[in-house]
Each structure stands twice: as C-alpha cells, then as structure tokens.
Specification:
The chain is an alpha+beta fold. 51% of the residues lie in helices and 13% in strands. The chain is elongated.
C-alpha cells in the first residue's frame, strides 16, 4: 500500500518532470512488484499449511465418534500418558480426571489427531496434546447439525418457564 501511494504521489504532477523523477517512478514500481511477489508467496505458504488441516477436519468430522470426541475434549484440557510401574499398563489421565485407554490414544495418534511429547519418560508422565488437525476435527464435529440442540419455543401466551426473581 505504501508503494502504491508513493507511486500516486510521484505521478500526481507535484514534482517537476525530469530524469530523476522517472528513476524514482521506475524504482517504486520495482519495489511494488517485489512486494506483491512476497505477498503472493506468503499467501501460498499459508494456503499450503492450511490444506492438510482442512482436509483432516472435513474427513474426520464425519468419522469421529462421540467417544472419540469425548477423549479429544478431555485431552484438550491437558492430559498425560502414564505407565504403571508394577503392571506396565499404560493409560492417559486427563486434567479432569478422565482416563483414556492406551488403545484409544494409539488410534487417535495414528489418525494424526493427538501427539505426545516423547522427551519425557512414560513412568513420569508424557504430556499428550491435540494437533492442529485434532483441534479442527473437534471443532468441525461440534459444528455439525446433529450436535446442535433443537430450539424449543413456548407456545404463544404460555407462562415463562423460569420463575421471576422474588424479593
């Protein structure tokens, strides 16, 4: 936008026409072309980054069961994968206290919806988080018409469903 305004100012007749003016106009148009090329490259990079997320959200929204939705919601609030030291059994414990079986975690991880931080040992608890695709799939699943409650309206002339506050 800056270069476009500069170009308009240079061509407005405010400056006397000489070789220096033509040089400035040529330099400004070159800078404007470079800026539009940079902007187009950045837009393509954003589109390329968003394509897998959109593809995952449209694909996984239809196949995401209510059990998987509940697991993703629990993981979204914070969760850790723990290994029991005596039995070796592994499970995910969410911050809300919900336990998610290890098999479900593997299935969600295989689908690219969750990721765990392998930098921490399992016996101490590996943090588990949603990926961008997992957040998009969860959001898309919550936006489906089946997930929305139908609005009920009271018949005309009906009393209010909630009592008025008393003093």
């Amino acid at each position: 936008m800056f270069y476009l305004k500069l170009l308009n100012r240079l061509s407005s007749g405010e400056f006397e026409v000489d070789a220096a003016l033509f040089t400035r106009i040529a330099r400004t148009t070159d800078q404007l072309e470079q800026a539009t090329g940079t902007r187009a490259a950045a837009a393509q990079a954003v589109i390329a980054a968003l394509d897998p997320i959109e593809a995952a959200s449209t694909h996984d929204a239809r196949t995401l069961s209510t059990d998987d939705q509940a697991a993703l919601l629990a993981i979204a609030g914070g969760a850790k994968l723990h290994e029991h030291l005596l039995t070796g059994q592994m499970s995910v414990t969410a911050a809300s206290g919900t336990r998610i079986p290890y098999a479900k975690l593997q299935r969600l991880e295989g689908a690219g919806l969750v990721v765990r931080d392998t930098g921490h040992p399992v016996h101490a608890g590996q943090p588990v988080a949603l990926t961008d695709a997992g957040r998009a799939a969860l959001l898309a699943a919550r936006r489906t018409p089946a997930a929305q409650r139908p609005k009920t309206t009271a018949p005309t002339g009906a009393w209010p469903s909630t009592p008025a506050p008393q003093r």
